[in-house]
Amino acid sequence: MYWSNYHSHCTFCDGRSSMETFIQFAIAKNVRNYGFSSHAPLPFLTKWTMLESDLPDYQTEFKRYKEKYKDKINIFQGLEIDYMEEFPTFINNVLKDKKFDYLISSIHYLDKIADRKYLAIDGPFDEFDNGLMTLFHCDIKAAVYRYYEAINQMIDKGGFDIVGHVDKIALHGQYYRDFDFKALWYTNLFGDVLEKIKKKGLILEINTKSLLDKGVTYPNQYYYSLINELKIPIMVNSDCHYPDLITNGFKETYTELKRVGFKTLQQLVDGKWQGVEFDENGLFD
After folding, report:
1. For position 36, what pLDDT does the model report?
2. How many domains does the chain have?
C-alpha cells in the first residue's frame, strides 16, 4: 500500500520548503508517486507564482533530484497553470518547447478590480469581500455564475490534464447568505461543469488541503456520489505548501470515496494515466 500526491508547491513558488525537503518527507510518509506543480508564471508579478526566468532552474533541479532519488520514489514534474480570460495565450508562449509530465489548471483570479489587481478566489476574505462589492455589488450568486463561466472557458481551452480545486469559490462564498452549494441553481452550474469535464476526458482533482481545518474538500464531499455516477476519473491531492502536510486528509478522503463507490484513482504509469485500485489505507501495489 502507498500514497500519491501530484499537487504540491515548493520554494520555486509559494511553497515553504525546498524541493528536496518535500521529497524526503514524501518518502518518509510512504508516498510512492509524487509530483511538483509549482504555480506557473502570470503576465504580472504576484507573491505566489513563479517567475518565467525561474523555469529553467525548476526543470534542472527537478532532474537532479529525480536521478538522486530514483530508487526510493517516483517523482514527476508539472505546473499549476492559471486560466485568465484576459490572457488566453500567455501560458502557451511560456511553455513553448518546455516539457512537463502533466499540467493542472485552476482559477485563482477572476476579473480585474483595478490596474494589476484582480478578484482573488482564495486570498484573504476581506480582499474577496471588497472585490465582490466592486465587481458584483455584493451579489455572491453573480460572482459564482461568473466563476463557473470562467471554469467552462478554461475546460474548453484545454491543454492540461487535471482540473484543480474546481469549486474553490465556496471557500469564501459560504459566508454569504445567498450562497448554497446544495441549491438547485448551484447544482445545475456545477453539474454542467462535471459533464464538460467528463466529455473532455479530463481528470478531476479531489483536493484535501482544507479538510482537516475546515472539514471540506474541493470538490465538496456532497458531490462525490454524482462524480462517481458520471464515471469521471479522479485523483486525490493535498495541494501541500508545507512538507508535513503532504498526505493531509488522505485517509479520511480515501475512506469516503471508497464508501460512495469509487474503485480507482488515476496514477501516472509509464507516462500514461491509468486507474489504480485503493482502499482507506492507500493505493494497491
Report:
1. 98
2. 1
